Amino acid sequence: MSDKIKIDIVSDVVCPWCTIGYKRLEKAISEMGVEDNVEIEWHPFELNPNMPVEGENVQEHIANKYGASLEDQKRSQHHMTEVGAELGFKFDYFEDMRMVNTRDAHILLEYAKENGKQTELKMRLVESYFGERKDVSTKEILMLALQEVGLNVDEGMARLESDDARAEVRTKEAYWQNLGVSSVPTIVFNKKSAVTGAQPISVFKEVLTDLLQE
Length: 214
Fold this sequence. Notes:
The structure is a single chain. The chain has one domain: Glutaredoxin (3-Layer(aba) Sandwich). The strands form 2 sheets. Strands 2-1-5-6 form a 4-stranded mixed sheet, with helices on both faces. The protein is of the alpha+beta class. Helix 1 links the parallel strand 1 and strand 2. It contains 9 helices and 6 strands. Helices cover 54% and strands 12% of the residues.
């Protein structure tokens, strides 16, 4: 087998089920021992593209956007925390947690892709947001994340001043939306089949097994 399985993941940095979906995919790949047979690329999707700079309290945001009661939210957060723990990922929900704008994070993920560190930066950002109570829309936290994964901080932050880099993210978001992607995570295999949501590990294993046998 000469060609790698190309896996495109459309997701947002502040999407908990995107993180769970990826960790399950990662576990499937690891348990099958096919790390060398896959190539992963992340693509931008903003759950809240018009989120103001100051962000919005997570509980208020979810109540306003989805109509979820506080009780439902607490139950969901507890469930995600348990699922995350099973996958070795820490969700630390707290009262003052804020939903934030992720445009800058997506710009830096495009920069990280050029330098072979896209998955590393993606996971550093989601760990910062969900597990360390950090605001991934701020320059300070973004600079720290770049530094922690070994990327050039000055070069990366310069991208945030680039109109072209901003336009590129919007163009890529539009591309996937035009293909019908309306919820995340959407995980596309070899550009021909896709699964949405945080599927069980067994589902990812089935998909990978079928593709490896082609």
